[in-house]
Amino acid sequence: xxxxxxxxxxxxxxxxIPADVRAQFLLDDDDLAAELRHMTDWYTDELFALPPDEAxxxxxPVSRLVVDPERFEDPKDEQMEAVGMGAVYAKTSxxxxxxxxxxxxxxxxxxxxxxxxxxxxxxEAAAAAALAAHGRCLIVDCHSFPSRPxxxxxxxxxxxxxxVHRPAVCIGTDATLPPHAPFAHAxxxxxPWLRERAAEAFGEMLSGWPGGAARDxxxxxxxxxxxxxGTAVAGIAFDRPFAGALVPLPYLGNDRRVQALMxxxxxxxxxxxxxxxxxxxxxxxxxxxxxxxxxxxx
Length: 298
Known about the structure:
This protein is α/β, with parallel strands linked by helices. It starts with 5 loop residues before the first strand and ends with a helix. Helix 7 links the parallel strand 4 and strand 5. It has helices at residues 19-22, 29-39, 44-47, 101-134, 151-156, 160-164, 192-207, 282-297; strands at 6-10, 56-59, 137-145, 169-173, 236-238, 258-266. The chain is globular.
């Protein structure tokens, strides 16, 4: 079978913590369960599921609390190191100790070798296969986010408004400039037409969302509409509350054939955030997300 040109990257859907890694954590079972409830992108592997003939899925097999594949491996490149949440977390989302810092440093290399690097090797291999088969590929980074900001978000953001005002769907875009760019322009891995197509596809999804499209829970009555084509539907925003789109490092900033988007769904659209359970119409929610993906890639 020819490799699909679409890659779905699902990095944060797992709540699995291997027993030997559990021993590294300072939290008791109840506090760890609460942290998993906050930090897991619940059910994104189900919401963004497409069959293998339509898209190749790369899913991280363990919790981001074990090691986070969306962080840069080199601490010097990763801004979240400032709050103890680089590739190997030392702090929780509320700033409490998760591992002691010496323990995190001691375990770091083993965790990167066991989970992080094999995951990125799989992602790079999928991109290489798509490029060999089609000459281009699209990576969709599949996420969700809580309806209310977690404390770490407020610590790292320079713009509190972007963190507090949370749309129904966040579309993250690449901001990488090409090498030797003579002037600043849109990131090379998310061209303007792709932004527009994503806004149209997910705007249409929200317009028919089961139970109606939810509003930003912190919106002011006269909040201006989000920028860009297709954003007239309430609830779509670019790079808010989270920004960026993952591109494998061998292609980042040097290969326009690799295109990338991040799609983040606000969790109250499809689940009960207090209990962690799916909403009654979850199957219809998943079908709506998958239909939007198909519109995007058509």
